[in-house]
Amino acid sequence: MTKDSNGVELNAGDSVQVIKDLKVKGASGTIKRGTIVKNIRLTNKDDEIEGKVDKMGMIVLKTCFLKKS
Fold it and tell me: Where in the numbering of this chain does the Protein YjdM C-terminal domain appear (predicted)?
């Protein structure tokens, strides 16, 4: 079961919010705190999700840096 940083269960298609500025490996920019990631997809790891971020495309994020919005 995939959970966010507050322990709330995440499902495919949910929207989540980034709770900390994150540097992205292989990219020149960062994902700022408060960025909304819409329509997430669950991976086969419980602590990761896939989501599309503006100007960066599809990336994998750790759920410990996200909260459900």
Answer: 3-68
pTM, whole model, 2 decimals? 0.88
Yes or no: say if 10 and 29 are a contact pair by the CB < 8 Å rule: no
- Domain with 23 in it: 16-68
* Backbone φ, ψ for residue 65 (5° rounding): -105, 15
> What distances in angstroms separate CA 9 from CA 38, 51, 55, one per listed residue?
15, 16, 27
> Taking all residues of the chain, what is their mean pLDDT, rounded to a whole number?
93
Number of separate domains in the chain = 1
49: domain CATH number? Answer: 2.30.30.40
